[in-house]
Amino acid sequence: MPGDRDRALDEADDSSRHDDGLLAVRAAEGDEEAFEQLVRRHAPALLRLATRLLGSRTEAEDAVQESFVSAWRKVPEFRRDAQFGTWMHRIVTNRCLNVLRARRPAVDLGEVPEPQAPEHEASPARVAEAHAAVADLGRAMEGLSPEQRVCWVLRELNGLPYETIAETVGISPEAVRGRVFRARRYLTEAMAAWR
Fold first, then answer.
1. CB atoms within 10 A of CB 149
2. CA-based nearest residue to 75, from 20, 18, 28
């Protein structure tokens, strides 16, 4: 039954949050194995986020690694009423923002690997068109401020709600909406040729 399945998924999600909280408490007491479990659990999603924000797998790996080192030092300060995953998203996002601000102008997103189309749909013309669109989007994203870029990526590529983005970035949900709106408007204008 759909209701039972949804309830089971919610309970599993609540259980993992509870597990994260317990692991964070143990890590704050110096338990390295507990922290390693948190790293294994959250690293893949954080690496995807950092790669999308930075456009470079190498820089993303460095940012995530530095974020976990920072988190290990700060885990005693972790508020038990917050979710560990949200806390780590904030640390990684802030690290990525610092990298983006330091390297103005923005990175070429042409380095981000494009998802491969199934063989039967990948005609040479479609592949060339897709590569051109990704390159144009990368150039267009260079025109966004780091703050707009982070909010847009978290909303459009990661599908996070405005409230979660606000908590992650440390601004109000209204400010997130404004940044996403301005980013969408700018990207829509910049990508007008692809409509």
1. 23
2. 28
